[in-house]
Amino acid sequence: MPSLKKLLSRFNRKEGEIIELLIEKIISRNWDNLDIKKLKGYRDIFRLRKGDIRIIYQIINKRVSILNIANRKETTYKF
To answer: What are the residues facing 58 on neighbouring strands?
Structure first.
């Protein structure tokens, strides 16, 4: 699994700041006004959508793990 720093390096500065804010909201469980859906076929994996940006994350025992951050495309959900 790639590091968060490596995942963020794919984006420009403005997108990176938005992503960091979204990740803080995920970790603090402040899910109001966020477009979050559970991925089909998985019990504990979710995706957050903000424009073309997708953040795929997993919650196990109240611990959040970021699996992928990508612009929307066919390979976004392959992790």
So the answer is: 45, 65
Q: Say what the pTM is.
A: 0.83
> Angle at CA 2, nearest 5°, toward 57 and 71?
60
Tell me how far the alpha carbon of residue 19 is from its chain's centroid.
8
Amino acid identity, residue 67?
A: L
Domain parsing of the chain, residue ranges: 4-77
- Domain made up of 4-77: CATH architecture: 2-Layer Sandwich (3.30)
DSSP for 4-26 reads HHHHHTTS-HHHHHHHHHHHHHH
Neighbours of 12 (CB within 10 A): 7
pLDDT in tens, 32-44: 899 999 999 999 9
| Dihedral of the alpha carbons of 51, 36, 23, 31, in degrees to the nearest 10 | 120
Q: Which amino acid is at 30?
A: N
